[in-house]
Design brief:
single chain; alpha/beta; Spore Coat Polysaccharide Biosynthesis Protein SpsA, Chain A; UDP N-Acetylglucosamine Acyltransferase, domain 1; 7-stranded mixed beta sheet; 5-stranded parallel beta sheet; 8 helices; 28 strands; 19% helix
C-alpha cells in the first residue's frame, strides 16, 4: 500500500502563528505535528508516502521532515494544484502517484492515541473497497458525519450538516481502493465550492464494500490553539518513559520532578522547579522559574523569573513576567515581559496579530 498525507491549507484559525510556519510543522512535545503522523503510518507497515503541500512549501517541508529515511520509508512531496478545493480534490491531485493503488489517506493535523494498524489490517484482510475511522464528538456540525441504517450499517456520510444524523464524526483516516478516481469523477462541488470526501465515501457505500470502525482512544483535530495545546498534553501522556532524558548539567539546587526532557546546552539555575511531563529544547536559559506539567519549550528559549504551565513555547521566545502563563501558545521569537519593566506608568503595551487572544 501507499499513503497520502494532507499537509496543505492555510490554517487561518491558528493565525498569527501560521503566518510564518505551516500548521503541520508546529511542534507538539518538540517534534513537528507531522512527525507523529509519519510514525503512525510507517508503524503500520506503509513505507511509500506522498505528502501534499501548499505551492512553494516543498523545500521547507523536506528540510524539516527529510526524505523518510528516519522512518525507513520513502517520502515524495507533491504541491497542491488548482487551489483549495476540498479533501477529495487533494487526493485527485496525487492521482499520478496513486492510480491503480490501494492507499491510506491521512489528514496531517489529526492526532490519535495508539496505532492505526487495526484499520489497515482490517481493510486488507477483509478486502474492503473503503474503510473509515469514526469518533464520537460533542459538536458533529463541525465535521463530516456518518448516517446509519437501523441495522447499524453505513447509509451515507454528509459534510458539516446543520442537523447531524448521528454524533459520529468521520475522522481524518481513510482507506480506499483503486476505484477512488472513478468515484471522484461522479462528485460535483458542494455549496461551498469543494469536492467533499464525504461524497466519495457515500459513492463507495452505494457501489462497494465499505467498513467503519470507531476510534476508542482519543482523537484530536488540531485546528484551534486550544486543540493544539490539548494535543500537546495528550502526546506527552502517550510518550514512553524512555523518551524523556536530561542531556545537560542540572545544578543540585534545582528541582526536576517527574518525566522531564532537557536538551543539550540548556542552562537551569538552582532556584528552578521543573515538574513533568515537560519537554525543554536545546540552548535554553531557564532562570528562577517554575515550569509546570504539559509544557513544551522549543530551542533557544529564555524564561526568567516566570511561571509557565500547560503551554507550547516555540523556539527563540522570551518570557520574563511575574504573571503566570497557562494554556498558552507562544510563537517563535515572541517576547512576554511585564509592562512595569518598560514603562514608568501603569498600562500594557501590546503588539497583537490577527486572530490572537490576549488575557490581561
Amino acid at each position: 500500500m501507499k499513503a497520502l498525507i494532507a499537509a496543505g491549507g492555510r490554517a487561518t484559525r491558528l493565525r498569527p502563528i501560521t503566518w510564518t510556519i505551516n500548521k503541520h510543522l508546529i511542534p507538539l512535545a518538540n517534534k513537528p505535528m507531522l512527525w507523529y503522523v509519519l510514525k503512525k503510518v510507517t508503524d503500520a507497515g506503509i513505507k511509500d508516502i506522498i505528502i501534499n503541500v501548499n505551492p512553494g512549501e516543498v523545500a521547507e517541508m523536506s528540510r524539516v521532515l527529510g526524505d523518510g529515511s528516519e522512518f525507513g520509508a520513502r517520502v515524495t512531496y507533491v504541491e497542491q494544484r488548482g487551489g483549495a478545493k476540498g479533501l477529495a480534490h487533494v487526493v485527485a491531485n496525487a492521482e499520478e502517484h496513486l492510480q491503480g493503488e490501494r492507499f491510506l489517506f491521512f489528514l496531517g493535523d489529526n492526532i490519535i492515541l495508539g496505532s492505526i494498524n487495526r484499520f489497515v489490517e482490517r481493510f486488507q484482510q477483509e478486502n474492503l473497497d473503503c474503510m473509515i475511522a469514526l469518533s464520537r464528538v460533542k459538536d458533529p456540525q463541525r465535521f463530516g458525519v456518518a448516517e446509519f441504517h437501523p441495522d447499524g450499517s453505513l447509509k451515507r456520510t454528509v459534510e458539516k450538516p446543520q442537523d447531524p444524523p448521528s454524533d459520529f464524526a468521520v475522522t481524518g483516516i481513510y482507506l480506499f481502493d483503486e476505484k477512488f478516481f472513478e468515484a471522484f469523477k461522479t462528485v460535483a462541488p458542494s455549496a461551498r465550492g469543494e469536492y467533499e470526501i464525504t461524497d466519495v465515501i457515500t459513492w463507495y457505500i452505494e457501489h462497494g464494500k465499505t467498513g467503519h470502525e470507531e476510534i476508542t482512544g482519543w482523537w484530536k483535530d488540531t485546528g484551534t490553539p486550544d486543540a493544539l495545546i490539548e494535543g500537546n498534553a495528550l502526546i506527552m501522556d502517550d510518550l514512553p518513559r524512555e523518551a524523556f532524558c536530561v542531556a545537560c548539567d542540572v545544578p543540585d539546587g534545582a528541582q526536576v520532578q517527574g518525566m522531564v526532557t532537557i536538551g543539550k546546552g540548556t542552562r537551569v539555575s538552582p532556584d528552578c522547579l521543573i515538574r513533568g511531563p515537560v519537554v525543554i529544547g536545546e540552548d535554553c536559559d531557564i532562570h528562577g522559574s517554575y515550569i509546570g506539567p504539559y509544557t513544551a519549550i522549543g530551542n533557544g528559549v529564555k524564561i526568567h523569573n516566570s511561571e509557565v504551565e500547560h503551554s507550547i513555547v516555540l523556539s527563540g521566545a522570551t518570557i520574563d513576567t511575574a504573571r503566570r502563563i497557562v494554556n498558552s501558545l507562544i510563537g517563535q521569537n515572541a517576547t512576554l515581559v511585564d509592562s512595569q519593566r518598560t514603562h514608568p506608568k501603569t498600562g500594557h503595551r501590546l503588539i497583537v496579530g490577527d486572530n490572537s487572544l490576549v488575557e490581561l
